[in-house]
Amino acid sequence: IPMRLLLAGLLLASTTACTWVPIEAAGKAVRVIPAGAAPADCTARGEIVVTVRDRVGFYERNALRVQEELETLARNEAYSVQANTVQPQGAPGDGEQRFAAWQCASR
């Protein structure tokens, strides 16, 4: 039984160290701006809602890693609504976050 615990621990450690959500080529051109007022020189393109796993079994994932993955997903999705900027509309909760999508003239 100790060998199974060791293997489970190694598997868990290896999955927490890597990013599960890769940035796509179109997402690389999208910037993330801080929450707050609507940005100047931008046109609203809609809202993006993204979700990732915030738990793996009984293990709660690192909150910063979850937030990074949510931002990456939002950046990847921005292309589908013709946006080049995303802005969080609140803090992540239960692995989900909402972003405003903007098309901004000045980058």
List the helices and strands and how they pair.
Elements: H1 2-17, E1 31-32, E2 42-51, E3 55-56, E4 59-60, H2 63-78, E5 85-88, E6 96-104
Parallel strand pairs: 1-5
Antiparallel strand pairs: 2-6, 3-4, 5-6
Walkthrough of the structure:
The protein has 107 residues and is an alpha+beta fold. The chain has helices at 2-17, 63-78; strands at residues 31-32, 42-51, 55-56, 59-60, 85-88, 96-104. Strand 3 and strand 4 form a beta hairpin. The chain starts with a helix and ends with a strand.
Note the main attributes of this structure.
two-stranded antiparallel ribbon; 107 residues; four-stranded mixed beta sheet; single chain; alpha+beta
Question: Biggest sheet: strands side by side, in what order?
Answer: 1-5-6-2
Radius of gyration: 17 Å
List the uncertain runs.
Answer: 12-17
Given helix and strand content, the structural type is: alpha+beta
Give the % helix. Answer: 25-40%
DSSP summary: helix tally:
2
What share of the residues does DSSP label as strand, in percent?
A: 25-35%
* Gap between N and C termini: 56 Å
